[in-house]
Amino acid sequence: MASKRDGFALPAWLAATALSAICWWFGSGLYPQWWLTWLSPLPVLWLAPRVRAPGGLNILAYLRTYIGLPLPVTLYAISLSGVMLTLCVLLFRRLLMRGHALAAALAVPTTWVAVEYTNSLLSPHATFLNISYTQMDALAIVQLAAVTGIWGIGFLVLLLPAAVALQVIPHATRRDRIAAMALAALLIVGAVAYGGWRLQAPATGTMRAGLASLQTPTAAALSGPDGQTLAARYLDAFDRLAKAGARIMLIPETSFTITEATIPALAELATQRDLIVGAGVDFKGDPQAERNMLMVFQPGAASPLTYNKHHLLIGLEQFTPGDVYTMLEGTPRIGLAICKDMDFHDIGNAYAARGAQLLLVPASDFIVDGWLHSRMAIMRGVESGFAVARAAHAGRLTLSDDRGRVVAEASAATRDAHAIREVG
Fold it and tell me: Do residues 230 and 313 both lie within one domain?
């Protein structure tokens, strides 16, 4: 005969799972509400042994329709967060049952971060959908990345609900409850205080940059009439940005298809107007290796500096990847990267080691992921100490400083987008 406790279990299980799922739905994905992310694990931790995690269905259409990932990869991506939370909950319960309440609270964030870190090493998409990116609107918390990387942010986001859950679980002693809550409060208050202090630091130097996106993500052959028309439009946009004071110009990834190792009109513009001009191109000048390339033209330079994209979007890009990091001479110290490169820590670490103060990043998004993907690039800047100028097709044009503050932003969905501001 079923007990009253058994009768209560199913409704409580359903309610807790539904509440966690709702919080996770709105607290993660492409447009997260950062504060809901902190709450999402709480209901299932409260009902530790009787829960099932919510998963990532809020990104299903994005992964299948926009990116076109194979079904097995999509299923892996949308189930990963659910599996991770299940592991956290099972370990939480096991330690509680053994009388280790404080260890149970610490096990939740530790397990989550450990799995995310392992996934970032094994996945071709690296840190994509890491829980830390949900916090990009909470700038004080985001500053923690300068010390701990994104892993410290994820740890805090999971520690708080675990500590709160411990307060209403009878298996925990009063001492463990106080210790868990005190530790969570100390770390969060410390992180916010550090973040607030860091956000008050003045910029060490600035340079006015301009971004432009005037087309669909399809590359235009520069030698053809469409390419010539597009080039003329970009030259006109550069002229307007230069008159507004911009000294650095950037247009999106693979804006043109070219076969020559230069674009004479941009080289001439850079010299005549004393500008740094960056253009993403599909370079087909080498019969052995087609490249997704960023060309940067500088005043008086005989040839552009180039950077070849390191990390390609598997299934959609057939380019030969690059393996060289490129820095411009002079000040500020400017490095080059392209789109998906900014999902990976190796790019940020390499440019931090080279003393970069600004990264130029042409990109190409899918409109719906414009906010998230631009913020992933911005996070690399916070981690590694550089500003980011990012111009995307079908996404966002963003200028951000090394604290993650977005100083200028425009949507490229209109296909006639501009952004200009001091960045540094």
Answer: yes
Which run of H or E residues covers position 297?
strand 291-297
Alpha helix (H) residue ranges in 123-261? 139-142, 145-148, 150-166, 174-199, 225-243
Domain CATH code at residue 231: 3.60.110.10
Contact between 290 and 319 under an 8 Å Cβ cutoff? The reply is yes
Sign of CA dihedral 216, 343, 205, 301: negative
Number of residues that make up the chain: 424
Round to whole Å and give the CA distance between 397 and 420.
9
Q: Tell me, what amino acid is at 192? A: V
User: C-alpha angle with apex 55: 13 to 106, nearest 5 degrees?
Assistant: 75
What is the sign, positive or negative, of the torsion defined by CA atoms of 73, 74, 77, 79?
negative
Round to whole Å and give the CA distance between 72 and 61: 14
The torsion angles phi and psi of 11, rounded to 5 degrees, stand at -60, -40
| 167, 171, 176, 264 from 98: Cα distances, Å | 17, 9, 13, 72
CA–CA separation, 247 and 210 (whole Å)? 8
- Residue that the structure tokens 């899918």 belong to: 366
Is residue 307 within 8 A of residue 294, CB to CB? The reply is yes
Name residues whose C-beta falls within 8 Å of residue 169's C-beta, 6 or more positions apart in sequence: 46, 48, 96, 101
Contact 133, 374 (CB under 8 A): no
Per-block average pLDDT, block size 10, for the chain (424 residues)? 45 68 79 85 69 47 55 60 81 89 95 95 90 96 98 97 89 91 97 96 81 83 92 93 94 95 95 96 93 96 95 90 96 96 97 97 92 97 97 94 94 77 74
- Considering the domain architecture, whether residues 102 and 213 belong to the same structural domain is answered as no
Q: Which helix (H) or strand (E) holds 54?
A: none
Instruction: Give me the number of domains the chain comprises.
Output: 2
- Please tell me whether the overall predicted TM-score, pTM, comes out greater than 0.85 for this model: yes
